[in-house]
């Protein structure tokens, strides 16, 4: 896919990341994961296996979950990318982030960004998935710290309540219970 003129081996990449236009000159061999972390300083997306087997690097590309370690950045020309940083809107955590905290679904947190993005893609396609459907959708995301029960419970709660984004609590504020 040709892009505008750039020095040999580099490509001009124009895309939308977390709702903002990005125009960057990047090495043509870089993966989306590398561009996000190294060039755009969006470090929420994690390096995991770099083989597409763990799901730690999942992001949304045009609202579909993809493994950024297997996606060449140049394939994202004129497309929309959403990372875990893009879940927070107007200083408010996404309902999934709140539910993960409520259910203890994140332990060390390394896998959490990829799981959150995969779950967000599922909930945007299927607002009220069954527990079985949630397990199936998250089957490519590995977590070594938690039992998957808390993760499934958190996603199920958001689907059951029908919340499609932020819950309304500013990031860092306590919720009265």
Describe the structure.
This protein is an alpha+beta fold. The protein folds into two domains: 77 residues, Ubiquitin-like (UB roll) (Roll); 83 residues, Orthogonal Bundle (DNA polymerase, domain 1). 29% of the residues lie in helices and 20% in strands. The chain is built from five helices and seven strands, in the order ββαββββααααβ. The strands form two sheets. A five-stranded mixed sheet has the order 2-1-5-3-4, with helices on both faces. Strands 6-7 form a two-stranded antiparallel sheet. The longest helix is centred in the last third of the chain and has 14 residues.
CATH fold-level label of the largest domain: DNA polymerase, domain 1
**Main pleated-sheet profile:** 5 strands, mixed
The CATH class of the largest domain is Mainly Alpha
Beta-strand percentage range? 15-25%
Instruction: Kindly name the structural category.
Output: alpha+beta
Q: How would you write the strand order of the largest sheet? A: 2-1-5-3-4
